[in-house]
Design a protein that fits this description.
This protein is an all-alpha fold. The chain has helices at about 10-25, 30-40, 45-60, 65-70, 75-85, 90-115.
Amino acid sequence: MRLSGKKLNPKVKQEIFAYLYQLIADIDSEKEAESFCRQIFSPAEQIALAKRLAILWALQKGQKYSQIRARFHISPATIAKLQNDLSKPEVKRIIQRLESEEWAAVWEKKIKNIFNLSS
């Protein structure tokens, strides 16, 4: 999607972002989130968002720029920008959520193995 060069009225911009953020906050499941993203974002926008999250995660895990570049086909400038973002409180919260999900997935698998439960 191409953005217009015309700026939105600040009040209108604030209002439409408030609606967007509330809609995102009201999403109840992964399936609903997927449906929302598929309807609202173009495939390119979805990939860009997902790649940014994956790059932040890779940086947090200590992967080298060269590994990240090769895996996600992005420029060093993009990696550097996201590296700087890692110090922002909002991004730290995102990383904490990703770490919580990873921890939960690991323990879910261990518990299922203990009790011989299938996925």
